Input
Amino acid sequence: AAEIIDVLERNGHRVDRSWMLATAQRCQAMWLAARGDVAAADVAAQSALTHHDRLPMPFERARTLLLLGQLQRRRRLKDVAAAT
Output
């Protein structure tokens, strides 16, 4: 999975496609969370949101926000997660 995520991110930078970068960061966050590194996953999800700011794709942004809320709950940040 890591290799595919890296390819997606490299191509996103190469052709300057925010949706590729946002998706790569969201996938990176899911991969990190699956490996148990929830703090790093939270950072990757936040990074994905910055790329979503340049996109008119509300459902993709919603998927990232859902993931971010799940990560925040796993880190016991329930008040922050509720605001997300």
